[in-house]
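One thing: can you check what follows?
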Amino acid sequence: MNDFDYLGEGEVYLDAACQSLRPRPVIEAINSYYTEHNSCGERVKYKWGLETDEKVEATRDKVLKFLKLSPRKYTVSFTLNTTYGINLILSQLKPDGFKKVITSEIEHNSPFLATMAFSERTSLPREVIKREEDGSIDISAYDFTDAVVVVNCASNFDGRKLLNIKEVIKATHKAGGIIIIDAAQAMAHSSDVLRGMEPDAICFSAHKLYAPSLGVIVWRDDLMDKMIQGFVGGGMVDDVEKSAYVLSATGKEHRYTRFESGLQAWGEIVGLGAALDWLNKLPKKDWQNLEYNYTELYNFLNNSDKVHMINHEANPTMSFYVDGLDSHLLGSALSREDIMARTGYFCVHYYLDHVLGMPPLVRFSLGLHNRPEDIEKVKKIMQKIIY
């Protein structure tokens, strides 16, 4: 794909689950911000600032359209990353009316640790529930009454999806609880499972969505009724007295400021808008190419007796270990061949290490930048290493 023409010949990037590469249109949009209208959004009346405001608001609209959510119900706020967004919500959520916090065993440390901190702060019990091999949750096995549920809709080590997300959301709401979805791994290649779903909040990282480093919270407006504002700063207020302030977010127009203290990453927000435009315009053949690449690589690895796959099916994100080989050494060996892959536990220490008892793993996570020749090179090098 020409949009990734900066990749050198023979360079194979297989760490898209950490952060995706950025296509040319996104890079150009960021450069345009810095060279054509570098300005503070929402604070100035000159031309550059007005252009920034227009593009930032357009990005908020694009996020909601991408997720098929109504602007009458939902607001988009920008943060640092998924971890920051989840913590920002939980650190300000009132414990009143809640009986427990629920997360699942396959979570990234972002929600896993944040739910620990929430439980410690509120003295509410914390429950870690099981996820099925296909990523779903057996809702009949758990009590969601008045629960704060924080779960992912796609895993960062094998890509398994929360296939019954609609039923989980419905069960949580019916039982008087709220649900926060970690969508960091879903937005780029598995957004189908999330679109049109209506949890209380969706947190994701733009840098896994072919966009710059940025966090996003998409939240139901009525969630704010359950919050205590405890993280405040510039850009959030209409007036400040000696010992009091008036929040700007009294109406729908500026409601997003409730999670946006201080200056925002305006260029990165503009870049996210460009990334969503780019994704929406991609031809079908590019998605077919991605599917071919990850299926081919998964089948190759899965057919070796020496390779132990964590995945139960093909996915752009796959993790494994090889008999008799230290995964970190394997990662270094691949690096010497210009193959860039992640090794370790991928911030899922509890499940991979303590539940499954796995050794450190290798993770191949593919993206739309990968070429068929990348897969052939990886197969060739892995063949030499394994045998």
About this structure: The chain has a mean pLDDT of 96. The chain has two domains: 2-18+284-386, 37-279. The two ends are 32 Å apart (CA to CA).
